[in-house]
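Quick start: read one record
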Amino acid sequence: MSRVLTVGAAQMGPIQLADARPEVVERLVALLRSGAVAGCDLVVFPELAVAEVDLDLCAGYTGTLFDFHRYRRPEVYGRITAQRGPEVPAGVRAALDDNVESSAEPKGEGP
């Protein structure tokens, strides 16, 4: 079975030492939202490709505070991985469809 995955690359641009964390996070979220609007399933930031990560620092956390193998539940991932695109509630979908149908009807001539 094949799956189509749309990947977008996002460039944060320079982050200054004076930039507050909330401002940087807002910029990241804005880029993620832009990717979602463009139909991306995954947005990759090139900055992360060159980031230095010491995975040994994670061992204390993953081995004590969070037991990954105990809490990982792949059976609940179906809902996350099965959905493609936004899920529109039935009532909203019906209203949208009614709106499209009413706008498609020819307008009557004026008196």
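The chain has a mean pLDDT of 77.
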